[in-house]
Amino acid sequence: MGVGVLLALVPWLKTIFGFPTFYLIFLYFTYFWIAQASSWNMLSGYSGYFSFGQGAFFGLGVYTMATLIDKYEVNFLAALPVGGILAALLGLGIGWVVFRLRLLKGELFALLTLAVDFVLAAVVRNSDAIDGGFGVRLGSVKPPAFLGDFSTMMYTLGLLIALITVFASYLIYHSRFGLGLFAIRDDEAVAEGLGVPTFRYKMAIFALSCFFIGLSGALHALQIGYITVEGIFSLRLPLFVILMSILGGRQHWLGPVIGAVVIFTLTDTFSKASVDYLNQIIIGSFLIIMILFLRDGIYERLKQRLWSSLAVLVISAAALILAGLEGRLISQLAYAMLITVAFLLLSDRLYRKLISPFHLLHPKKQARVGDV
Fold first, then answer.
1. What is the Cα–Cα distance from 183 to 189, expressed in whole angstroms?
2. Is the C-alpha dihedral spanning 56, 165, 259, 63 positive or negative?
3. Where are the alpha helices (H) located in the chain, listed in sequence order?
4. How would you label 25-64 residue by residue, b for 16+ Cβ within 10 Å and e otherwise?
5. What is the spatial distance between Cα 247 and Cα 179, in angstroms, rounded to a whole number?
6. What radius of gyration do the chain's Cα atoms show?
7. How many CB atoms lie within 10 A of CB 192?
8. Residue pair 320/335 in contact by the 8 Å Cβ criterion
């Protein structure tokens, strides 16, 4: 909550110090990916039901906002929650069928959710009332006076949705509901035998996950402007969200937040540097390394090496800034993050060797006979 309050002051600081609007846009996209990754992790990370259907619920939120504004001239603030509600209702409909059939688990559940993405894309493309294959172009949306200009409005609403999503994920993680989901993930038959209402829990978490996916997607429609089926119902979004959660750690509510910040900052840096091919190389390498060597994500390592990791991040960023390498501040932070992630991937044995000289600077006080 404290971090949220501080981040809410950024537009105010922009008016004082006059830094470019680009930073508000960059932070909005960061919040968007945090909300998407955290919402996916509620279902797939907590309950173990691996979903590839992120694009379907995201697309439903996007097209709900676009249709209500373009066809019916509904106020965007009123249309915003409708995108989340419709996505949740779609999730409940799918869950009511799937979760009653116990055979649809694992890879079968993943393929079914992926099929929903394709089916929904075909419906939208062939429906003249929604898209009709020509796309939807949103006109300029006039922000209310209390939200400032368009960039400030998107920043504020994006931050609010990200905070609500992460806070919901945090509450679930620390609740009896969350314990039931973790039991389902570990062994659903045993969890049911111990009294966990598995069907009800799975329906609830599926609906919550879809609601936040659709809500974030509805807001993102305003940022996109021109909406097409090919751009919305693509595999890029679910793959990025899965990678963010795996990189950060699916076992904890903070994992997807860390993964989203790292992955989006790196992809933005490489795309601005006109070396998009490095995106696929580095992100693909991350995925391979995480699967082979660090399946629990970097959160657990970060927790164990918190102060040394912060020192590596600060020293790396300061060195890049002082050296004047990669002119943009975000680029310098991205390379500092990359160095820090590499540091976290070091094995425990190599890590102990690296930090052993620093322990010698502060030798522990020897125990006396009386103390023993």
1. 9
2. positive
3. 2-8, 10-17, 22-44, 54-70, 76-98, 107-125, 150-173, 176-186, 188-193, 198-224, 229-232, 236-248, 255-272, 277-293, 298-304, 306-323, 329-344, 348-361
4. ebbbbbbbbbbbbbbbbbbbbbbbbbbbbbbbbbbbbbbb
5. 23
6. 22
7. 14
8. yes
Structure tokens at 155: 């920043």
Q: For residue 58, give the nearest of 117, 141, 99, 132 by alpha carbon.
A: 117
210 and 57 in contact (C-beta within 8 Å)?
Answer: yes
How far out from the chain centre does Cα 250 lie?
Answer: 11
Q: How far apart are CA 271 and CA 249, in angstroms?
A: 25
272-275 contacts, C-beta under 8 A, 24 or more apart: 272/328, 272/331, 273/326, 273/331
| Residue 182 Ramachandran class (φ > 0 left, ψ -120 to 50 alpha, else beta) | alpha
- What is the predicted pLDDT for the residue at 358? 63
Query: Which residue's structure tokens are 């992120």?
Result: 54
Assess contact for 200 and 44: CB atoms under 8 A. Answer: no
Q: Name the phi and psi angles at 137, rounded to 5.
A: -105, 115
Tens-digit pLDDT profile for residues 242-273: 989 988 999 899 999 999 999 999 888 887 76
> Residue 265 to residues 1, 29, 187, 279: CA-CA distances in angstroms?
23, 10, 36, 11
Taking alpha carbons only, the member of 244, 270, 271 closest to residue 258 is 244
Q: Are 173 and 253 in contact (CB under 8 A)?
A: yes
- Tell me 148's DSSP state: -
Dig out the tokens for 289 from the structure.
């390394």
Share above pLDDT 90 across residues of the chain, in percent, rounded to a whole number = 53
pLDDT tens-digit series, residues 58-100: 999 999 999 999 888 899 999 999 999 999 999 999 999 899 8
**Which amino acid is located at 202 in the chain?**
K
State the CB neighbour count (10 A cutoff) for residue 324.
Answer: 8
**Residue of 50, 3, 60 whose CA lies nearest to 27:** 3
Please check whether residue 234 is in contact with residue 55, taking contact to mean a CB–CB distance below 8 angstroms. Answer: yes
At residue 347, what is the residue type? S
